[in-house]
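We treat protein structure as text, and this decision shapes the records that our systems exchange. Because each token names a local backbone shape, the row as a whole describes the fold. An entry from our holdings is shown next, in its original layout:
>
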Amino acid sequence: MIQLAYLLAATQGRLQSPEKQTRFQGFSHDTRQILPGEMFVAVRGERGDGHDYLFDAIERGATGLLVETRHIESMPEAEQERLKQITTVMVEDTRQALRAYASEILQRWQPTIIAVAGGVGKTSMKEAIASVLSRNYATFRSWKNYNDLLGIPLSLGRLEPQHEYAVLELGCDHPGELHKLCQMVKPHIGILTNVAPVQLQYFGSLEHLAKELSELLYSLPPEGCFWLNDSDARLVEIVAHYQQQRGSAVPDIRPLGIREINETQIRVGWEGLSFTLEQEGEMGTLTLASRLLGRQHISTMLAAYRIGRACGMSAEEVSEALEQLGPIEGRLNPLPGVYESRLLDDTHNASPGSVLAGLQALDELTNEGGKRIAILGEMLNLGYYQDDWYEQIGEQAASKVDYLILRGERTALIAESARQAGLASEQIELVSTHEDAAQLARAYLEREGEAGRNVVLLKGSEATRMERVTEMLMAHPEEAQEKLVRQTPGWKQILVLQTERPTWVEIDLSAIGNNVRKIREIVGPGVQILISLKADAYGHGALKVARTVLHNGASMLGVATLSEAAALREAGIDAPILIFGYVPYWQMREAVRLDVTITLYSSESAQALARAAQALRQSVRVHIKVDTGMGRLGIRSEQAEEILALVREAGELEGLEVEGIYTHFASADADDKTYAHTQLARFQHILELLERAEICPPVVHAANSAATLSLPEAHFNMVRPGIAIYGLDPSEEVRVPDGFKAALSFKTQIAQVKMIPAGECISYGCTYVTERPTRIAVLPVGYADGFRRAPRNWESVLVHGQEAPLIGRICMDQCMIDVSAIPQVRMGDEVVLIGRQGKAELTAEEIARRLGTINYEVVAEILARVPRVN
């Protein structure tokens, strides 16, 4: 409960108008999660400013606002008057005000502060300690994993005067943060869980992280107490160095006693974790048990036991409290899964230590005869040495899983390491979507049987959102809201981006998977699907698209060049790949080595390819290309004898296997199908001649996206859609049917907003001169990103759900827009170049119309330096 008088005294804040409310249930900084009766704190963050949502907070039930004076004073007078309906406290800096309040309220009510910090396991240990103490004492605990300089003060808004203990989880993701946290909360009792690799992108090494964590020990008063995880060598070193520096004037340092536990006394099972503890004095031995899963919780339970005893609780009282301790959402939480499997939902976050602990638990908890399936997403924020950690995970997984499903580009390192450690390739799958991961797991579980024995571990860093896979595998998915992490309305709206630039492309791979399945419905089960991945999958990212389409019904891939095929092979794609384009003689050996399928249209190429195959003692598949009226590569259809001769010759050449024959339509995307039917008739004539000669290749294909959607007689036994797979229309005359979804959005952020006087030039050449004072926004995107400069440009983009016109020439890396008509535009706001924002949308088709081109070119020309996120 927050009392207004204490808040004003601590923050030196002032009321904007006479107080309307003097007590508040707590703080909230997110209007999507605010509860009635809370005080909304407007926080300026890296991706937004809470001051933009003040009136939204009021509408959602906030009874108070904590805001920055400079923002209120810059607001229009009418809006300032609206704020007077609610208690509004104005301060210089809301973050500093929260910290000041936290320090003030802790000093005023003086609970005993127990601080938990470390690498992994902080939340579980904090919850265990608080749960034990709350049996006998009024105990406060920081909310979930709100553990930083913003989260701790937000949590302390619910501290009450009667709380005797406050158990706080202290986190750190950059040097100096833990020191500031300790200065703010002034802990009396401290414990470090471990020194495990987390946030190394900012600490650089475990040694630097250990130094940061030692701040907790150094912050304790001489009369305080530090509990040492004596099984962690780095923590033991920290304590030894501390004692050497400080001498005798140090807090009481006590070991948890993990090393003293007899390994044979540890029991790990679905009922929980138990172990025997040798007690001092007359107690003899004591068995501690909880419903926590995994031996990594030995330190969790011991910390709760030791601190409970030190705070005056009897061994029996602590033991009884521990027995009630169970898993937390997203942390090795057991859930019923499909096909009577058991899920180990460990999706809260991931670091090497926690992944290894999860794999150990998976291995120990799988009953004899059951299968062990691990679904792992990426581990983020590991810095320069992340490859080593991924490889270590793969090596360990090889002996602890039967099937390994990996999502994310970096997890390819896990796959390779697992293979080298002995896990067969057919036991490892790399996927790019949550849906594909779940579908593979379902297939394994359905095939393996052993109901009640199979176990699935699900794990990944927060940004990978692996809880979505858990939901798809739950026996009762309707319980997801209650039992999974990140289920609040706020999280449901959040897309976690990991980009190296403020200009990016979002690719919805689930939409691509959906579109492939729609194609499958259109063509039926007897027709194979080849997906065109030319030009980096039309700008969508060839590797991730390849994995997605292969898991959703495609059996073959198509590329334009050998280099495109090589990139897929090097990434582990082993599906058939057809090269549509020209392969020069000097590349043919490499084509054979990579086991790709080659397009042939001349005797000379056939002979050169055969020589390459014979040199490598391998065979290579070929498809014959017939030009029925496109005028590109291929033997002209009127040269029937030459086509038949090539098919015969290729079939007789050692090392060649004639697998297919195909053609390509010039105008299947037109309303008038006359020419398409002419081409089709020419192709069918060639097929009839080949069938009479009994040399027709087994695979026949002609249908691109347009023909797949509008010319069913051209399906034969394979279709090769391209643009439709990405949810884009083949043309204005042939559109994708209902149910197809566009997969690509192109976005940037505003870099600067400023007023330009009338009569001033904008951009190169002074082609645009302001006619009146104009508020412009500068965007960090230009023609070097594929954002067209001339002769025509995009014309406008979306800001706050409204169109903002481009003004002046597009620069290589930047451009300018007029936002004079759009209120409250500021640095960091999202700008949509292709996609939807609110109720407004700019489609690739609309941009193509403005540029005088086709949607293919619009998406394919977004250059590689623009990061793709999924």
In short: The first strand starts at residue 2 and ends at 3. The mean pLDDT is 94. The radius of gyration is 32 Å.
